[in-house]
Write a structure and sequence with these properties.
182 residues; 4 helices; 8 strands; globular
Length: 182
C-alpha cells in the first residue's frame, strides 16, 4: 500500500537545518505574540517601510489563514527572527507571498533554507515557484536570481504608486510521468 504524501505546507512545524551562524532554523505556525513582535520589527525596515506597509497590516497578513494563505514564524533556536507566508496553490505552484527576516538575521543563510524548504514541499507536485519583489530592492532581486528565479513580468504600481513589483518565477523539473505516459 502506497502511503499518500501530506499536503504541502500542512505540518505545524518544520526543521530546516542549521545556518552558517549555527542555530537550528525551524518554521512553526504563526502565533499572535510572534506575529505582533515580528510585524513591528519588519514594518520598520525596507522594503515595507518604503512601501508604507504598517505593522498592523503585516500582523494581519501573518495571522490570516485561508484562501490559500499559510503563515509561519521563522525561528533561529527559540527566537522568532522572521516570517514567511506561502499561498498555495497558485499558477501550478506555490507563491511566496512574504519572506522577511529581522536585520540581524539577514545574510546568514536563513532565506536560502526557506526557499529550499518551499521547493522541497512541492517536489514532483508543482511546475513553478512564484514571488514578487520590489523593483528597488536590488539585494533581494540578486538573492532570488542566484537561486534560479527569473523575471516574468513587471507589475506597475502594484502595492504603491511610484513603485513597481517584479514577478519572478522558478521553473521546477517536470512532474514525473506514469509508465503509461499520462
Amino acid at each position: 500500500m502506497i502511503k499518500a504524501k501530506p499536503a504541502p505546507y500542512s505540518a505545524p512545524r518544520y526543521e530546516l537545518g542549521c545556518t552558517r551562524a549555527g542555530p537550528e532554523v525551524t518554521l512553526a505556525v504563526m502565533t499572535q505574540p510572534a506575529a505582533r513582535e515580528l510585524s513591528a520589527a519588519l514594518a520598520a525596515i525596507d522594503p515595507w517601510a518604503r512601501l508604507s506597509v504598517s505593522a498592523a497590516q503585516l500582523e494581519t497578513l501573518f495571522t490570516t489563514r485561508g484562501e490559500g494563505a499559510i503563515p509561519f514564524a521563522i525561528r533561529a533556536g527559540s527566537q522568532p527572527v522572521g516570517a514567511v507566508v506561502i499561498r498555495y496553490p497558485w499558477l501550478h505552484g506555490p507563491y511566496l507571498n512574504f519572506l522577511g527576516l529581522t536585520p540581524e538575521h539577514q545574510r546568514r543563510g536563513i532565506g536560502a533554507l526557506v526557499l529550499e524548504w518551499m521547493e522541497r514541499e512541492v517536489q514532483n507536485r508543482a511546475r513553478n515557484l512564484w514571488l514578487c519583489v520590489a523593483s528597488f530592492n536590488t539585494p533581494a532581486l540578486r538573492f532570488y536570481e542566484r537561486r534560479g528565479f527569473t523575471p516574468a513580468a513587471t507589475l506597475d504600481s502594484l502595492l504603491a504608486d511610484r513603485f513597481d513589483e517584479v514577478l519572478m518565477r522558478k521553473r521546477l523539473p517536470a512532474e514525473p510521468r506514469l509508465p503509461n505516459g499520462t
